[in-house]
User: Fold this.
Amino acid sequence: MEQDKFVTVDYRTIHDVAGPLVFVRNVKGVSYGEMVEVISSDGTNKHGQVIEVDRDLAVVQVFGTTHGLDVKESRVRFQGDVIKLGVSTAMLGRVLNGLGEPIDGGGSIFPEKELDVTGAPINPFMRDNPNDFIQTGISAIDGLNTLVRGQKLPIFSGAGLPGNELAAAIVRNAKVITGEDFAIVFGAMGITRREASFFQQSFAETGALDRVVLFLNLAEDPTVERIITPRCALTMAEFLAFEHDMQVLVILTDMTNYCEALREISAAREEVPGRRGYPGYMYTDLASIYERAGRIKGKKGSITQVPILTMPDDDITHPIADLTGYITEGQIVLSRALHRKGIFPPIDVLPCLSRLMNAGIGEGKTREDHRGLADQLYAYYAQGVDLRRLVAIIGEEALSEMDRLYLRFADEFEENFLNQGDQNRDIEETFEIGWNLLALLPSSEIKRIKTEYIQRYFPGEIVSEEVKEETPKAEGVLQARPVEEESVKSKT
Assistant:
């Protein structure tokens, strides 16, 4: 009864307004995270949230503009409850704004329950180890930097690079090869109307929209709404994963816009800035988002995160990319040089990493030769890239025949393995392309794959000492031979 009486109290004690923040004096019984209604003198209502309480002062973050707000006449009403999201499986296939309200004209959504969007990281004691493969249809990811169910694997893009196009391709192609229920929650922050239209059309044309919940916070929407959008997306993902046993892939773009919103609010609160003006608590804030991914013991569902961020000036040491790399379990880096060559997706595999890759590959998951093939392709390509730098100094004429084969491998690797356009490749096709590329060099150069797997593709041609002297010649390069399907296919 006392709580009901508290909710109806209106405060006319607004002390100051700074950007999206409203400072209210002489408040009692107000809690951090509490929802607020700001009623202006003309009768219009704005919603907000308490982000700081200091004795009798409450700082309210308004979801919208505070322009024209009359300090003396406006009223502030505290709701006595935190921000919640109504969730339902009927939200699959729907387009929502950054706060989870339908904007696709499909009518209201009747929620099965309401959940606190603030959420919490998964308890480390209850975490289960990620150990299942998610196929993205992208060879550079599936083959060399495998995404594992329950992992956090960010994509580091740059201005003008096709990070959004890569995200759309993953949404269209992604699946779990075990055949379980699979859903995608897509949270977009600070994107333009053109980008929003691109995502909606891309998903609708391929039929992927039916399994996607799309949260859209546009560039013209309130900045502070971007703070809520990823939390709404993750709350929806937790509902699908842990209450409906679905395998959920969460894609968040662009985390740079999210961090810019953090910096703007921090500046309005006159906080002491950290690196490059970002708040000192940005690491903790990002961790509160990223650590909501994973698997829980005793639950069949999982949440896998693919955050996408735009590196300012392509600087991978920028605070946003730097902190994201600390918290997450790897990184996929897009290359401007590959993009200029017309390669899509322009993934530079050399600085890329998937720390949980070994947990999701191998016999019974992808294929027993996966690890060795990935290591050998990486080694060959790294050698070819190093030789490119050498060629720029001394010229290609000074190279040996073997060095020229490595150069050729690097070119063919980029053109045939990395470059796939809109093609959706399953994991077996990725393996086949990889083995065919290894055939560009003599089998004597293969040092990271077990002999039994080499013999499977190059039967009877393990190179002897006598043959090694002749193999540098281009015409002596071995060709991969087709093998029986049963011998290489995953047992899954």
In short: The first strand starts at residue 10 and ends at 11. The two ends are 59 Å apart (CA to CA). The domain at 85-360 is CATH 3.40.50.12240 (Rossmann fold).
